[in-house]
Amino acid sequence: MKGEDMNMKVTLMKRLDAEERELMQQIQTYEACTMAVLNRVNDQIRPLHKFAVEDIVSNLHRKTIELQTKLLHLRLEKALCQLSKH
To answer: Which member of 31, 42, 71, 72 lies 3.0 to 4.6 Å from 23 by CB, making a disulfide possible if both were Cys?
Structure first.
């Protein structure tokens, strides 16, 4: 592999690593928010509107799944990039 090609791969891997960390942090944040909503529901003295809470938790969960799918694709891209090094 030429030096220029190697530098491009290293740059790509650094970018993918940074994107992976960013996605993982976003996923952790959405999961923490979901748990905060669920804990808040458990701590409520007065009942909350069931459908509103379901909508909120579902939207948080849906976004978490979208981010997990992006992370899966990114990890696949990283694996294929590493495979092409050999």
So the answer is: 71
